[in-house]
Amino acid sequence: MTGETLIFEFLIPVLKIIAVILYPMLMVIVMIWLERRVVAWIQGRVGPNRVGFQGVLQPIADAFKLFFKEDIIQKNADKFLFNIAPVLVMFSSLLAFCFVPLGESFKIGTYTLNLWIAASPVGLLLVLGLSSVGVFGIIFGGWASNSKYPLMGALRSVVQILSYEIPIGLTVLTVVFFSRSIDLIEIVNHQFHAKIWFGFMLPVSFLVFWISGIAETNRAPFDLPEAESELVAGYHTEYSGMKFAFFYIAEYAHMVLVSSLVVILFFGGWLPPFPNVAFLSFLRWIPGFIWYLIKIMFFLYLYVWLRATLPRYRFDVLIKLVWKWLIPLSLINLLAVAFIQYIL
Amino acid sequence: MPGKRTPSNSGEDLTSDGGRHPFLLTKLDRWIAWSQKNSLWPFGSGLACCAIEMIATAAARYDISRFGMELFRASPRQADLFIIAGTVTNKMAPVIRRLWEQMADPKWVVAMGNCAVSGGPFPTYSVLQGVDKVVPVDVYVAGCPPTPQGLLHGLLTLQEKIARSHPTKDIFNSDARRID
Amino acid sequence: MLEELTDVPALNKAYRSLEEIFGDFLLGVSFEKKELSVRIKSDGLLSILRHLKSALGFNALNDIIGLDNLRSKAEGAKRFSLLYQLYAFPGFVRLRLVLDVDENEPVPSAAPVFQSANWAEREIFDMFGIRFSGHPDLRRIYMPEEYEGHPLRKDFPLEGRSDGV
Amino acid sequence: MKDTRCARIFPWKGGAMAFKEIELNMGPQHPSTHGVLRLKLRVDNEVVLGIEPVIGYLHRGMEKLWESLTYTQIVPLTDRLDYLAAVSNNFAFVLAVEKLMGLEIPQRGQYIRVILAELQRLASHLAGVGFMANDVGAMSVLLYSFEIREDILDIFESYAGGRLTIHGIRLGGVPFDLDGEIIAMIWKALADIPRKVRDIEGLLNENRIWKHRTEGVGIISADQALDYGLTGPALRASGISWDMRKDIPYSSYQDFAFDVPVRSGSDVNDRYLVRMEEIRQSIRIVTQALDRLPPGEFQAQVPRSPKIPPGEVFHSIEAPKGELGFYIKSNGTDKPERVKMKSPSFINLQSLELMSKGNLFSDVVGILGSLDIVLGEIDK
After folding, report:
1. Which of A57, A268, B16, D51 is the most buried (most CB within 10 A)?
2. Cα B34 to the center of its chain, rounded Å
């Protein structure tokens, strides 16, 4: 085995596997810090600024502390499910990142480095599927705690996530109509060839997908499963220490995942903006990965903004919103897009 | 095994002779104490007047989020710091004790206000004369109610106390923090 | 004579009406600091309250106040007094009914007439140990269920009898 | 159960999919019970079938304690009743004692009392609205309202030295005169507050989610409200114009022009809107009082520990939460024979079950927030 093959065949895949864990973690750490600072800024406060430069080490201190906290398992809890729930949530959101491409491939000498781990031809399906597996963790956690508030949180979460899956599926279909592929890389490439991002072609799809995506991640204003003023802490009320941290991190990882999906499906992934405007071609000199991160950060910022601004939905209004508005809207959208596709 | 209690004899081996820890644990001690002091998540529990000042401390003017303490956890399982803000009555005392027991180790208690410290202006049949009769208190903050500055000073004092502590001792010695 | 007693026409009217219908139940009347208080017998309480509410427009029971007259009572007088504060809307007229009760004497509950009497009577039961017959849910309201003694009685020490916890 | 909106959403109720009725315990430690209130809820899935409030977790035995203290010693303890509106408690108690003494307060003292009480009403309503919005999920509103509240607390701090329980009204008048510096601070705060309040309204008033959460929720009709003895903004939102400041004026309130906001929707949103309007009216009152602040004494001559002639009196004022009254029976010494406090929150809380039945569990916290209760004055 030559040194080159060792590097390219063995070392780089291993590094990639490490990276697929590190990348979401890093994003989560940045996101937690960003959220606390941005929410503080919106509310006229300062936010964490004592630990490290401007408080950037705050999430690390939090995680380190949680790691050394006592792990309480209730006497009446279902121990197996109670333990498996945070793992399931964490596992599903991390695994989904395997199929999310981070940028275009580039060449190092003769070797082509792909910024993705698994280029699956059905990547979109896998990501959507894996991101929904997390709901099992929430159900298990809520049920196994053997406590009423977590159970109610879990029940809310099931209904909410199952309902909001439907508009997500329907809107993703419209993207697939145009790209003629459910490979995430192909979808981005198609936006490159089409010279327009799908978000501008299919604004309704984008809006419905984005709203449903927020609901999928249980974030404000759809944070009913963990509504603090009602359900104390929702499905993770009984969790402490590292298991709670898993839920906490998984929620943020899920947000990053949804933002990545929005960017890939509707905003051209790692493509620079205005690819067809000649005098803006210098934007291409910035690596695609940077563009990709900037776009994701924008959508993560929107998450925080919404959280600081809006009150929480009530359960019946939440369900009404999806069944009376989002699903019919996405159905009409689907028909319209299909019709246009047929005519063209 | 963080958090899990190991048999105390192994703990005694590690921390038997006072401050002379093995080098590794000393370093670890410092890191754990650093993280614990910088990420004190208070338990969002208010009892009486002092609770309003506690909220004012978290609000924009005084802003304890600077110290990473703005994550008021509603569930005792996830909190590190129990700010007992207000009068504890005999009816409430068992609840306070239970909430304290529900919190995961390591945990700290700040008695905020004269009522929590000593019963304050209420020497009556229904008021617990000092919360330290039911839970161990780390820092006492006097005042009726204490100003947010006062509470902040109490919290910073607690941070200093944590910085001086030896967390590994507590982890390996299961009886270190137990009081009965 | 009554016009000299109060300067509020609505109160005069109310008292005249009470005197007419429930004359047997009235024990006395006083007008002090612009407040009319009518002392009544406890058997007449419910019918008087109903009459005040339906016919005279005293549609809100503001509060029930309990008094322990242990130290100041005359020989042979009853130990406790209950004060019913009534309001009339519109017009903002205040009327007070006074009721003398002995230690183990049950009082008819006003809760069927005024919803607001529910908790007020529970409070008086808790603090003074006066029982209200016909109350839907007469339990202690402030003190724990198993607590012994009634704190606002004059013979109850301020620090309580036991150590509490 | 009433046929409410939520009963219609769950049409299978009682059918094959009926859920077991479960008991849910909210409190005494819960993020949105405003202190140590405990609610025993009976819920079917999320629909509330019944609520039983359990109080007394903050019962400090105030009324018993007062019987062993002199009148002047009692005044600072009244601060700790409704701790969000400490001055209003002083005000009610002091007025009752003065009525018993037959004491006349100098005009300037009365005006300063009005200024302090109205500033306190502003602070209390702001905190109330903030907590209510926080319960409904709009967390920034709480911080905005606390920021406005800080301006008022600053005034109190420079006036009396305290922030929350300031003991700002004393027997015979007020402890200090309003000097130019404090008046300038009040003017500045009055100029700032309407703008900042508009920020809060901009976040909530036309917000669709807010409207979903508050409109048609927690309804109590005018008759029921009277039957339960509701007072304060909760009663005025049910269409009954009752404000002690207007109807039985005390402490020179008849000198000021202000409106009593009344709404007829009697839901959570109306209670919120009434509070917001009252904030504006309070600003009007303070402006007038400052403009016409009469010169002269601000304190009547009162002995250090006055002996009150025997008698009994009941006096009530319009506190931010509702009608706050004190019944005092004196026995001729410097200590009262009995003091009974008529607390508005105690009465208002009773109506919670009526308002919440048939609504969703999430609405209970909003309704509780809209009642704006303070456990200190419920439990005494």
Report:
1. A268
2. 16
